[in-house]
């Protein structure tokens, strides 16, 4: 069994995937736009992503730009959880993810290790964990 996150965006999926690719050292794969799809979207939306995947060492999720007639609630129905072994990397990752977004739980020591939860500038919730 494999469980993956599938993130929906309001037209800025490519920008978000570029941000995450840089942050996690991953690549955008299987990039498909609405261009040749038989889907009723405005011509101005044809270059938006109908499907893409972010793949790298330890990261793999899918994402797309929801069609303009699909209401989104800024990603509050999904959280991405990242587990790391290195405290300094965890601190930096949390700082980068929360930059321009909102911190819900400061990255600090907890009973099980270090943890922080934030919403990034694209409206996606993130939980960063570093075990003791």
UniProtKB/TrEMBL annotation:
This is VOC family protein. Coiled coil: none annotated. It holds the Pfam family 3-dmu-9_3-mt. It comes from the Bacteria. InterPro entries: Glyas_Bleomycin-R_OHBP_Dase, PhnB-like. Residues 2-128 form the PhnB-like domain.
